[in-house]
Amino acid sequence: MQITVNGEPRETEAATLSQLVAELSLDPNKVAIERNLEIVPRSLHAATPLGEGDRLEIVQFVGGG
User: Fold this and answer.
1) What's the CA angle centered on 20, arms 40 and 24, to 5 degrees?
2) Taking the CB of residue 36, how many other CB atoms lie within 10 A of it?
3) Which residues pair with 33 in a beta bridge?
4) Exposed, middle or buried: residue 20 (CB in 10 Å: 0-12, 13-18, 19+)?
5) Residue 65: its pLDDT value, please?
6) What is the pLDDT of residues 30-44, one digit of tens each?
7) Are 21 and 56 in contact (CB under 8 A)?
């Protein structure tokens, strides 16, 4: 299906937000996801389905010092 991630069109086979995070090789404990202008709590990533045309903003937290 075709979705938009951080402003870029992307084709994905992922069915849920958790599957997309894995597909993108991101640490699921260090991301925040906004789906269609609504923040999705991390506890709901596995249960939140992706749909054709979804617009996602994914932010990855990076530690440092």
Assistant:
1) 120
2) 11
3) 40, 58
4) buried
5) 63
6) 999 999 999 999 999
7) no
